[in-house]
Amino acid sequence: MSATTGIGTFTIRPLDPLKDAELLHSWVTHPKAAYWMMQDAKLQDVEREYMRIAAHEHHHAYLGLHEGRPAFLMEKYDPRYVELTGLYEPEPGDVGMHFLVAPTDRPIHGFTRAVITAVMDELFADPRTRRVVVEPDVSNKAVHALNEAVGFVPVREIDKPEKRALLSFCTREQFLAARGVAV
Fold it and tell me: GO annotations under biological process (predicted)?
């Protein structure tokens, strides 16, 4: 996938768990990635986690590039089998999503919103995707605002083993409406 925005071109490629592990390790252990819950991870832990995801039939990881340079991590999963099993009633076409923007010393205004928009474009590029599901930590107010900006609607709080999460959904129509595209 490739998408050009007002701040450049984004591309997404499958993650290579071994080749990309060192880069990911620097991202997931950065203080700004606290909600990723891998602050104390060793390089081998990151390799192991992304090898596990690569081998999983219902969970996939991707590296997002901005102008050809690594800029974000995207995960998509089938919530019937990963993350949300038994915590809500999945509908046909539901796709779960996580994303993490790489830490930077030179932030670009609007960058994170452009990233989540590129992620949502990628997910909705699959005609089978009817609704994107997210479950961020209830205290992560910044991501709640971003999610709302691209069309997510909070449904309820849920208890996951590692956190109290805000279950939210975004249909294709809600995403397009949030972007100002007539549906």
Answer: siderophore biosynthetic process
State the Cα–Cα distance between residues 152 and 174, nearest whole angstrom: 7
Residue-wise pLDDT tens for the chain (183 aa)?
666 667 889 999 999 999 999 999 999 999 888 878 788 889 899 999 999 999 999 999 999 999 999 999 999 999 999 999 999 999 999 999 999 999 888 888 899 999 999 999 999 999 999 999 999 999 999 999 999 999 999 999 999 998 999 999 999 999 999 988 776
Helices (H), 14-140: 21-28, 43-55, 111-124
Please give the domain boundaries of the chain with CATH numbers for all domains: 2-179 (3.40.630.30)
Task: Produce one character per residue of 97-128: b if its CB has 16 or more CB atoms within 10 Å, e if not.
Answer: bbbbbbeeeeeeeebbebbbbbbbbbbbeeee
For the full predicted model, state whether its pTM sits above 0.85: yes
- Amino acid identity of residue 144, one-letter, is H
* Coil vs helix vs strand at 4: strand
CA 26 – CA 122 distance, rounded (Å) = 25
Angle at 142 between CA 115 and CA 150, to 5 degrees: 45
Taking the C-alpha atoms of residue 129 and residue 120, their distance in angstroms, rounded to an integer, is 10
